[in-house]
Structure formats: C-alpha cells, structure tokens
C-alpha cells in the first residue's frame, strides 16, 4: 500500500481529541471514528447543537486509513475472550464489551475489500435527504454489488465527504530557464526533465497517467490492446529518478528533483511554505481519491448517522470542510477565489471541464490487476 492508500492526509484543522458529551442515564450515544485532519472540530460542535435529543457524542480521530480498515476487520472477528474456557471466569473480561462506531471514515480505495469481507453495510439513502441531488460523479463510485464491484443498480455503500486529485508539482525556480511550464501529462516526457522526476510507486497511478496521455482511461481493463503503451512507459522511465509514495516531496524541496507526481493532500500543505513549488491538475484529466463515511456491519441503523451525512453535505458546512482541511467537496458551494490562498486556487476551485475528464481508480479483475503489476515491474527494470 502507498501513502494515499495507507496514511492520512495532513492538511487542515484536525479533531485533536475525543469530543464527548456528558453521560446521562438513558442517554443514547453517537460514535464516529474519523480520519484525523479530515473534519474540523468546530463542525462537530455545530452538529451537536442541531441535535434535539440527549446524545453522548464521541468523535475519535485516527491517524491512518489503514488503522480504520483494520478496526472494521476486528469488529467482525469473534472475541476470543468470549469463548468457552477459563477466561470466562475472569469478571473483568466478562464485563468487557466492544462498542462499534456508528460511522467510520474509509478511503475509496478500500471500499471493495470492505464490502467483499462483509465489514460494512449499505446506507439507507432514503434517510439522506441530499443523496438524490448529489452529482452522479459522486454517486457512481459508491454503488457496488455484494462483491464490491461497480454496479449502477447496486446498493449505496458509502457517502463521500471530501476528495482530491493526483497532481503534478514542480520546482518553479528550476524550470524558469525554459520557455514552458508543466500543463499536462505529456510534459513529463520533455527532454529537459530526464532523470529529474519522481513518480508514485504505484502501478495504477503510473500506468494510468500514461493511459490518460494516450486518451484512454485509468480503468482500462486490457492493456494489451494499447499498442503504444509499452513504448511510452519505457521512455517515461528514462525521465524518472526514483519511484516512491511516501518521501517523494523531500527531494523536490531540496532541488534533487524538479518535478513530482503526487496526491493533493500531501502536496497542498507544502505550497504555502515553499513558494518555489507550484502544482497543477493535468489538462487531460487525472485520478480522483475520496474520503467516505461507511457504516460498520452489525450496527443498528441510526437516524443520527443520516443526519450527520446530511449535515456534512450542507453547502455552508461543506464549504467550511473545504477551506479548513484544504480539500475539495462533492457539494456545490459558493466558494470564491478570495476564500482560498492564491497557490491553492487552481487545486481547490473546481474546474468542471477537468473534473469531467478525471476518474476514480476503480476495481479491476484479478487478471487485469496482474497485467498492471507485471507491466509496472517491467517498466522499472528497463534500462
């Protein structure tokens, strides 16, 4: 797994501690495990004020998406302490009770596995008022069959609340000697960038950007049908200094590389700190990632879960999430250029034309996945 698919985004205001209401007798509880940094704390407090009934709110920040996925797995495993045997006689263990959360943050990349392993349950969209008005761009990736594959007629398994892109980030000072600035994926093949680029160590991302350059989809099932693909990959490999998905930005800052391909939630925090860096969304379109709300399997359906999703999708709240966590929102808002610092405007002010050209990286068949992995390995081993 790689940084976007394994680690948290670091941008924005974070929920820095558990936010818990006072315990009262017969009081219901609403528990959410949320990716740290993805929801501002005061948004949680605003939601709490809208709830009329007595509820004990517990929002628990978790550092890594991977940990959230593992927590979903743990909840579905039988508790060894409850098995027949001597441990049943220990009072403390008898009184232990695992409480699942009502909602959990999950990255879109993990959705197929969560469904396939029966870790989550479908959402009740009839209780989510804004679902019907949500742009189909954000509805389609979360409609899946019971194996986690995309199905336009499938159940709705998640609700996206923020998203970002795979972007090109470059050192403006190093490129000012040339009469061009990066605009699209094709610029990665320019001779001036030979051995000056870092790419993500991820077959779907790298082969996907080459497919995009060729006018194809990130989700192309049969790579053998793309006649120019291997040649393009071989040439691109000559441009690459190294492949990495965690420390790819440090060499760019130091000047060892001049350009990198990375995830927006890694890149955005650096743009204000290092004015020499600039980032763009490639004109041919790019990959999209999203953070989602999912409901663990076995948890009773709660009106509060639907109310929370609705709350996050209110335009004014979605705007706050965007501005404070420096990510995009699936909801149409009235965000103006003046709301966002200049270095981030081309990344956070949604360009509808680019959005239409961009895609989620969706699950492929096992055979197709093997094609991507084999071709990527061959690319990196090409001299």
Automatic annotation (TrEMBL):
UniProtKB keywords: Coiled coil, Periplasm, Signal, Transport
A GO BP annotation: polyamine transport
Chief location: periplasm
InterPro entries found in the cross-reference section: Sperm_putr-bd
GO molecular function: polyamine binding
CDD domains: PBP2_PotD_PotF_like_1
UniProt-listed Pfam families: SBP_bac_6
One cellular component term from this protein's GO annotations in UniProt: periplasmic space
Gene3D superfamilies on file: Periplasmic binding protein-like II
Highest rank taxon of the organism: Bacteria
Subcellular location: Periplasm
Coiled-coil region: 219-246
Protein's UniProt name: Family 1 extracellular solute-binding protein
Species per Swiss-Prot/TrEMBL record: Sphaerospermopsis reniformis
């Amino acid at each position: 797994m790689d940084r976007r698919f394994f680690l948290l985004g670091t941008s924005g205001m974070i929920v820095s501690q558990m936010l818990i209401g006072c315990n009262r007798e017969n009081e219901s509880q609403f528990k959410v495990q949320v990716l740290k940094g993805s929801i501002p704390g005061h948004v949680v407090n605003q939601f709490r004020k809208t709830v009329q009934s007595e509820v004990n709110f517990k929002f628990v920040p978790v550092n890594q998406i991977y940990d959230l996925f593992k927590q979903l797995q743990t909840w579905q495993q039988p508790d060894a302490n409850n098995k027949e045997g001597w441990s049943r006689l220990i009072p403390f263990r008898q009184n232990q009770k695992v409480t699942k959360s009502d909602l959990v943050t999950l990255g879109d990349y993990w959705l197929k596995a969560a469904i396939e392993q029966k870790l989550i349950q479908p959402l009740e969209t009839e209780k989510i008022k804004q679902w019907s008005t949500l742009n189909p761009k954000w509805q389609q990736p979360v409609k899946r069959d019971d194996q986690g594959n995309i199905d336009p007629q499938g159940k709705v398994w998640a609700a996206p609340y923020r998203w970002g892109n795979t972007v090109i980030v470059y050192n403006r000072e190093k490129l000012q000697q040339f009469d061009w600035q990066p605009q699209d994926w094709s610029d990665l093949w320019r001779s001036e960038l030979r051995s000056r680029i870092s790419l993500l160590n991820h077959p779907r991302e790298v082969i996907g950007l080459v497919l995009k350059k060729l006018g194809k989809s990130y989700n192309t099932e049969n790579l053998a049908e793309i006649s120019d693909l291997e040649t393009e990959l071989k040439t691109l490999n000559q441009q690459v200094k190294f492949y990495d998905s965690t420390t790819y930005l440090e060499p760019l800052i130091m000047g060892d590389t001049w350009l990198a391909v990375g995830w927006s939630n890694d890149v955005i925090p650096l743009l204000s700190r290092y004015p020499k860096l600039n980032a763009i969304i490639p004109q041919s379109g790019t990959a999209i990632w999203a953070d989602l709300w999912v409901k663990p399997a076995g948890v009773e359906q709660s009106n509060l879960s639907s109310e929370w999703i609705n709350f996050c999708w209110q335009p004014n709240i979605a705007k706050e999430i965007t501005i404070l966590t420096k990510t995009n929102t699936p909801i149409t808002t009235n965000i103006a250029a003046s709301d966002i610092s200049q270095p981030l405007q081309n990344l956070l002010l949604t360009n509808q034309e680019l959005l239409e050209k961009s895609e989620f990286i969706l699950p492929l068949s096992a055979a197709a996945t093997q094609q991507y992995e084999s071709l990527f390995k061959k690319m990196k081993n090409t001299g």
